[in-house]
Amino acid sequence: MSQQIQKTTTNGKEMLSNPRLIPVQGTLNVVMNQNVSLSCHSDSGTPPVRYILFKHNQKISTLNRPDLTPGLFNLTINSASDVGEYKCKAEDNISGGGKYSNSLNFTLKEPISKPMLSSPTSQAKEGQNVTLSCLSENGSLPITYMFFKGRKSISPPVKMQKREAAVIFLFMNSSSDFGTYKCRAENSFRNNTKYSNSFNFTLAEERSHSQPLIISLGLILLLFIIGFALAIPFFIIPSYKAKIFKSTRSSTGFTSTTNAEEPEDYVIYTEIGKFMLLPMQS
């Protein structure tokens, strides 16, 4: 009896109740370009009743009802901003200011894109740890990933609540662990499972330990030859010149410089040639 008194005014007319906003299709999950309907309804009030729909607190549509039948608002989800927040307001000629409903938000279900499978390296050695990352850049969250070696699953499902890659760690224990890998991504969007590109791990070739030693010895020998060649004009030739000049002066006395230069150079280079041929003859 007290509830009935609260719903009526002094002149016997019913007071307007807060309306309820519900999706006609029964779910708040939507996809892009989908048509949806929202029902706004007050259980009590004095007709006629005016229903007003708001999106992000902005009025987008108005319906007038001569009785207490629901107001149906038809919408199209054209972009991410169309998911809400939605509210409706009911007004009649008795209640001042009207009454507001609950709020609703749609959840946009976007199909996932083809995931990308990657790793920091495509070559590994036996006994080495490697990682594999799988990421689908588009699609509504959460996204569930699975990893495969050939057609065999090698990991439990990995559900990602954020736009981040799913990562697994692999131990390359034997040659059978090398080969082609793939991953799979799926979300709540129906019939929308995508497989990634193939990623192949190959066995890294081990370099011979003697190879760096051979290269080092070759470089040392090359530097020795270059150093010897550079030493000829600066040290060996002046030494031979001084020796020959001294011996010439002691045996013949003062000699013309012009006449002595040609045989002097000839003797010097002849002696150097003999010196360089000694190792070859031995």
UniProtKB/TrEMBL annotation:
Residues 19-105, 111-202 form the Ig-like domain. It holds the Pfam family Ig_3. GO terms for cellular component: external side of plasma membrane. PROSITE patterns: IG_LIKE. CDD domains: Ig (cd00096). The chain crosses the membrane at residues 213-237. The keyword Repeat does not apply. One of its GO terms (biological process) is cell surface receptor signaling pathway. One of its GO terms (molecular function) is transmembrane signaling receptor activity. InterPro entries: Ig-like_dom, Ig-like_dom_sf, Ig-like_fold, Ig_Fc_receptor, Ig_sub, Ig_sub2, IL-40-like_Ig. Keywords: Disulfide bond, Glycoprotein, Membrane, Signal, Transmembrane, Transmembrane helix. PANTHER family: ALLERGIN-1, IMMUNOGLOBULIN FC RECEPTOR. This is Ig-like domain-containing protein. It comes from Aquila chrysaetos chrysaetos.
